[in-house]
Amino acid sequence: MSNKLGGKVAIITGGASGIGEATARCFAVHGVRMIVIADIQDELGQKVVESIGSHKCSYMHCDVTDEDLVKNLVQTTVQNHGRLDIMFSNAGNMSKSAQTILELDFAEFDRIFAINARGMAACVKHAARAMVELKIRGSIVCTTSVAASSGGERDTDYYMSKHAVIGLVRSASKQLGVHGIRVNSVSPYAVQTPLLNRHLGKEPEEAEVAELFYEPYASLKGVVLKTKHVADAVLFLASHDSELITGHDLVVDAGFLGK
User: Fold this and answer.
1) What CA–CA distances, in Å, run from 216 to 107, 183, 209, 211, 256?
2) Are 11 and 80 in contact (CB under 8 A)?
């Protein structure tokens, strides 16, 4: 066990499964004092806590589209643990339909933006407020996507929402730098998670993920992105290893964007 995060308190939204769960397990291995998992998947969240151990991990129900719940998440974490060093704002969703601009359904558009953009902003806002008040030189990491740096033939609302996160990260990093707070993002390519499985309507094998996404589109061959790879990138951005990095989007894509 390393001590990269020794003594630190972290919140992970969307921490009950996928990238969030993998990051919680990664943080636990690297010496974090307490991880607060926030999600709407209560049963899965409790199982992650049981697996990691309640001495190092706890769970709170939080729908990031409700700012009051996000504010309470941060305040409760500080009340219970005395500080907040890391906010991994990871909760997000994908469009339920393949929206093109000609068919754009604004009810669905608003749903996606409420989670991916507004919810992300609420997490950054309230985490930063707590860090400023406590004079903590914290790290805020947001999950975005390669969609934030490209356009799509469909899923217009999703692509737009992820672009918004990059704008949030760049602006917040400039505004919070005076307080010693770093704000960065991580942009993965396709990674097999329950979210991707729901989007595809099935649970593909790794070989199928490679055939669908990596063999035709990624320049780095013979690899498939896993949640662990993204968690390792988040660990880097959350720890002192990246103490001079802020306003940066760390792309983890096997060369998809550069091809």
Assistant:
1) 34, 33, 11, 7, 9
2) no
**Domains, the chain, ordered by start:** 9-189+226-251 (3.40.50.720), 192-224 (no CATH)
- Rounded distance between C-alpha atoms, residue 87 and residue 72, angstroms: 14
Residue 219 exposure: Cα atoms within 13 Å on the Cβ side: 6
Q: How many CB atoms lie within 10 A of CB 21?
A: 27
pLDDT-based confidence at 102, cuts 50/70/90?
very high
User: Which whole number is the average pLDDT over 247-259?
Assistant: 90
Residue 212 carries which DSSP code?
A: I
Give the rounded percent of residues in the chain with a pLDDT score beyond 70: 97
**Interaxial angle between packed helices 227-238 and 18-29, expressed in degrees from 0 to 180 and rounded to the nearest 10:** 50
Digit-coded pLDDT (tens) for 51-60:
999 999 999 9
Label residue 1 by pLDDT band (50, 70, 90).
low
Q: What average pLDDT does the segment 155-163 reach?
A: 95
Angle at 70 between CA 232 and CA 52, to 5 degrees: 40
The whole-number average pLDDT for the span 155-177 is 97
Q: What is the DSSP string of 125-171?
A: HHHHHHHHHHT---EEEEE--GGGGS--SS-HHHHHHHHHHHHHHHH
Q: What's the chain's Rg over C-alpha atoms?
A: 17
The contacts of residue 63 (CB under 8 Å, 6+ apart) are: 40, 69
Strand partners, 13: 38
The total number of residues written for the chain in this structure: 259
Can you tell me the mean pLDDT for 92-114? 90
